[in-house]
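Q: Can I see a sequence and its folded structure?
A: Here is a first one.
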Amino acid sequence: MFALVLRLILIPLTRVIYRPVIEGRENVPRRGPVILASNHLSFIDSMVIPLVAPRPVAFLAKKEYWTGTGIKGRIMRSFFIAISAVPVERGTHRAAQASLDASLAVLNEGMAFGIYPEGTRSLDGRLYRGRTGVAWLALTSGAPVVPVALAGTQDIQPVGKRLPRVRRVTVRFGEPMDFSDRRDLKPVGPVRRGVTDEIMDAIHKLSGQTRVAAYNERPSEDAA
């Protein structure tokens, strides 16, 4: 109940304070499984998208957000429940597959799921090569993919800043992409790579970011 009340308060309050520019909201299917594949500029992206989308959008979040104690822990836990976040462990290959399995479970329940194909947020504002987990999800689940482009979220909570600032952001939802006709194609590696590249092309078209042909690799201490 607390999480529901929090969501009912957060959505209108966020729109009043930040006055986000939202484009293409009608492109998000109102029912059934759908993957929202977005560029990634800030930690706050996983809060912005669920608050402006026309339906709840689940994101993965580290399990520690659910294990805090006291009032702060309860508020944090309720907040992530309110935005439909899914708790997962991170840091190992087994955890990576577990994350994909948790994502697939969300889609199999007919929900919307948000993912960042770049893997981690861009520190320089450029758009990096997408990892093929998004294609695995799309091909395995049969869910359509809606490309999403965020702009300005890096100014709300820049890297290294603990408190968010009031800045206007733009969220663009592109037209759904259907890859169901490629679910049984072989070999799977090139098929997944091709699907991922098409998704990244669509995100780039919406965001206008400078493209980078390499993966977005982060220093180990920064990732930690």
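Q: Show me another, different protein.
A: A second, unrelated one:
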Amino acid sequence: MSRAQRRIVVVTGAGTGIGRATARGFSAQGAYVVAVGRRAAPLAETAAGHPGIEPLVADVTAPGAAELIVGTATQRHGRLDVLVNNAGVAGGGPLGSLAPETVARHLATNLVAPLLLTRAAVPALTDSRGVVVNVTTSVGSRAWPGSSLYAAGKSALDSLTRSWAVELAPSGIRVVAVAPGAVDTPLGAHQGLTPQQQADVRRWQVARTPLGRVGRPEEVAWAILRLADPAAGFVTGVVLPVDGGAVIA
């Protein structure tokens, strides 16, 4: 594959979990991947052994981050073909415990950052007739006590996916979403949960997943790569659950 044939992909939240698996999956297909995350060490681990992955340390919620991320991809490679809005924070707590700063942090990461990043990417994606893949959650449409803030932000991103799919179709841009269920990622540890609390959450999740297990990051990455593939060129506006059947149980 020549350099001109290799797709240029941006993946946010690429330091661990689904983002890491997605960045490596695109790299294995021959793409150049700008892997975005807040911490240098996990990004370096994502890129290790994958020469097509270029780490970019950036906080997607910082002022100017969207322009920095898109500009890095286009200045280094001259184009942008796929944007994967994967960075997110989970948890939050019951309604009565939600402090204003918690609400602001969740919405800034899970909703505002993807919106601003997609807006910044539209000119480049128009040139390439590219794809936006939003990573949401399959249980956003169901009651989720204790994580209502997370579910609400991700549900709003589902809505944006459908609206953008129609709005951007005349520009040749497809917009899709992948909605994971319970997946084996470090998200619980990042929330500050103890090992016992993480185990309790996992038991609760498995009990509500018909396939009886949690998913693997690579299984979610598979769906992201398939929806972003040119062969899926007639697919837009879809929100695909990858959740072991949890959303329909």
